[in-house]
Amino acid sequence: MKPLAYGTASLLLAGALSPAWAQAPADAHDSHHPGAAAAAQGAQGNPGSTPADQSELSEGEITRWDLRTLKVTLRHGEIRNLGMPPMTMVFRVNDASMLAPFQPGDKVRFRVERRTTGYFITRIEAAR
Known about the structure:
128 residues, alpha+beta, CATH 2.40.50.320, 2 domains, 5-stranded antiparallel beta sheet, 24% helix
């Protein structure tokens, strides 16, 4: 294989270091993902923390839950990280122990994330 000429190598290096390549991945100000900008700003606030730690929790009320299917129905207010208006909706959890302390009628604060398989509660606590 023939080594690259100095001019070609310089062009490749210049292209890789250009400002267009140096931008943040998946531009955090992408209008198609309204939660991305808030998540990116939250992650900058405290090194080592996740965006979910920095963002506020949504409020809701448990209307029913099923530990067997790992599903919970919440009547909730706005979910800002998803741009979702208030409504009643079914969410999933990864672990039944997240729902065990709660009963229908309990007011909760929670964090929900959208995944390819649905909306999952990643954090839930009793409302104060």
